[in-house]
Amino acid sequence: MIAFISALNNAKGEIEINLANQLWYAQGGQPYPAPKTGADIKTCQTTNQKTILLSFGGAETAADKGYASDDEAKAGAKKIWEMFGPKTAASSIRPFDDAVVDGFDFDFEDETAVFASRHRDAFIKELSSLARAAETAGGKKFYFSAAPECTQKNSLLSSIKYDMVFVQFYNNPTCDVRKYQQSESTNTFFNQWDEIAKSNGTKFFVGLPGFSSAATNGGYVSPENLTGYLKPALSLTNMAGAMSGLGPNDMYHKKVNTALVSK
């Protein structure tokens, strides 16, 4: 996962890209080029057989004013497709050069009214439509995922059919992954999302913060406690794994994997 496209349409009408330790913002209407990242993407795809998704949103989206209409949102989706989808003659701006991501992730943490006012739904549907048209024309498969907060059971999930949903069980005290004690065999919130995934024809992943500072409102689970907190999810039919962000975390994702396979 590459994160984030932090603003699709800022006050200057520009796209902002924030990749943490590799930080690029829009400049004069064009994002800074990142050919090295593009080369890394291709290496991950070919040598390491990884699927690379590009994520939109995140918590720091104050600069993103969204779109004023559905037509404007659709035009924005076409621009994103030209930037990160298959390279064509219309692709004048290519931050990752000729590298093509394998799909897109939507981490729009908007409440329902804001989601609607920014015309997120039209953007998501148009981007999905462009990807499906490319597939039909003989291109590779593109994947679409959502990363809702554990309380966010609204418009984001109804926009399209997602291949997977990465539910953030952190930074929300009401459905924090630690809400249930390790000794309990059932986690009601996991069960709720299992049903939501089933009704939407998808799979859900338990989202965990990769390090404590990524969960200022709670939800970080120390490595030695991962097995206990994840155990209630392991028997659920529509639970497909766990999601964790990278950072100064001493290979935390490997410890999550160990917890998942140690039934």
UniProtKB/TrEMBL annotation:
Keywords: Carbohydrate metabolism, Chitin degradation, Glycosidase, Hydrolase, Polysaccharide degradation. Signal peptide: none annotated. One of its GO terms (molecular function) is endochitinase activity. It is an enzyme of class 3 (hydrolase). One of its GO terms (cellular component) is extracellular region. Residues 1-263 form the GH18 domain. Gene3D superfamilies: Glycosidases. Its EC number is 3.2.1.14. It comes from Phaeosphaeria nodorum (strain SN15 / ATCC MYA-4574 / FGSC 10173) (Glume blotch fungus). The lineage of its organism: Eukaryota, Fungi, Dikarya, Ascomycota, Pezizomycotina. It catalyses: Random endo-hydrolysis of N-acetyl-beta-D-glucosaminide (1->4)-beta-linkages in chitin and chitodextrins. GO terms for biological process: chitin catabolic process; polysaccharide catabolic process. Coiled coil: none annotated. This is chitinase.
